[in-house]
Specification:
Elements (H helix, E strand, L loop, with lengths): L10 H55 L5 H24 L5 H4 L1
C-alpha cells in the first residue's frame, strides 16, 4: 500500500462531494425561501397595521361625533328609579295601592 494519491478520485470521494454539493444547493434554496417568507410576513403586518390604524381613526371620528354622556345624569336617573320603586313599595305596604303582582 502506498500513501500516494491517485489522479482519479475514488467512488466514495465522488459520492461525498456530490452530497456536499447537493446540501449546499438545498441550503441556498432554503435560505431564499425563508427570506421570501419573511418578506411576505412583513407585507402582511404592514397591511394589517394600516387596517388597524384606519379602524382606530374611524372609531375616533365616530366617538368625537357622538354626544358625550354626562355620568351624573345617568346616576340621577338610576337614583330616581330606585326612589320611585321604594315609594311604590311603601304605598303597597301601607295598603294604599294593590300589590305589584295584582296590578299586572
Amino acid at each position: 500500500m502506498s500513501g500516494k494519491k491517485s489522479a482519479e478520485p475514488s467512488p466514495q470521494s465522488i459520492a461525498r462531494s456530490n452530497r456536499q454539493r447537493l446540501a449546499a444547493e438545498e441550503g441556498t434554496r432554503a435560505m431564499a425561501d425563508v427570506e421570501r417568507q419573511a418578506v411576505d410576513v412583513r407585507k402582511n403586518m404592514a397591511r394589517l397595521r394600516e387596517l388597524r390604524e384606519a379602524k382606530e381613526a374611524a372609531d375616533a371620528t365616530l366617538q368625537a361625533s357622538l354626544p358625550t354622556a354626562n355620568p351624573d345624569e345617568a346616576q340621577e336617573k338610576a337614583d330616581a328609579i330606585v326612589e320611585f320603586n321604594c315609594v311604590d313599595e311603601n304605598l303597597e305596604r301601607a295598603g294604599h295601592m294593590p300589590k305589584s303582582a295584582d296590578r299586572a
